[in-house]
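Page 42, continued from yesterday. The earlier attempt failed because a stray header line got pasted into the input along with the sequence. Redoing it now with the clean sequence only.
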Amino acid sequence: MSESTPAPDRRNFLAKAAAVVVGGLISVVAPVAGLFTLLDPLRRKTDTRGLVRVASLASLATDGQPRKFPVLDTLVDAWNKTENVPVGSVYLQRTGDATVRVLNSVCPHLGCSVGYNASTHGYFCPCHRSSFTLDGAIADPKSPSPRGMDELEAVVRDGEVWVRFQNFRKGSPDKIAV
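This time it went through. Structure tokens are written below.
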């Protein structure tokens, strides 16, 4: 009787090689797909705030009396989209048949909410006594505010007032968007 030495099994080799290749593909494809899912918010374009509908032109007084309106916008973060979120407020003032002046209702000094005083026809910040004229300019030279109220871009389209809402750095004489 002769001792038999096992001969290399080619079929066994091919099965093992195929298992290594398939296992390698799976171990590479799955983490790459997970990485794309995880980094998906980073590859999206940054949310650049566009125009936001604030009010109808008919809701503004024709005599130039300003009126305060909340600004509601859609906020998008990494994976969430939330609609009608209050992001601030503005004063709208009709300056013509189809023209509007828009002022951010936040004081440029330290960010307090500015109120409108109908008896003086101007704006007043109760925190540090800054006062502003009807067009948003500083009314009192002793005012602690470093600049007038921040005017925003507005478009009147089909009887609706659309505003490009943004906030600016507080305490700075320069109007720097944040």
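Notes: The radius of gyration is 31 Å.
Reminder to self: strip header lines before submitting.
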